[in-house]
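Please go through the sequence and C-alpha cells given here and tell me how the chain folds. Record follows.
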Amino acid sequence: MDVLLHLFVGLHIIGIAALLGGFLTQMKAMGQGTARFVPGMLHGALTMLVTGVALVGLNEAQGAHVDNIKIGIKLAVLIVILALVYVKRDEEKVDKGMFGLVGLLTMVNIFIAVLWT
C-alpha cells in the first residue's frame, strides 16, 4: 500500500509541475499580453485533482488522519484553477490578470500543502 501511496504522491507532484511549468513558460508572453493557457496546464490540474482524491482515499483507507479543512481549501483552489483554465483553454490570448491569478492560486496551493501542518 505504501508503494501505491508514493506512486500517487509522485504523480501529484508531476501534475503540479505541469501546471506551474506551463505558467512559468508563459511569463514573458504574459508581460506582452499574449499569454495563453497551454494544454499541459489543464492536464496538470486534472492530474492533481485525480491523484489528490486518490491520496485522500488511500490515507483514509490506512487509517491516517486527514485534515479535511486543509483538503477542502486545496480542492476549492484547484477547482477555481481548473475552471479558469478549462473555460479559456482555446483562446489565443488570456487577460494578464486572469493568467496571473492562475499562477498565484497555483503557488497558494503549493504553500498550503507544504506549510499547513
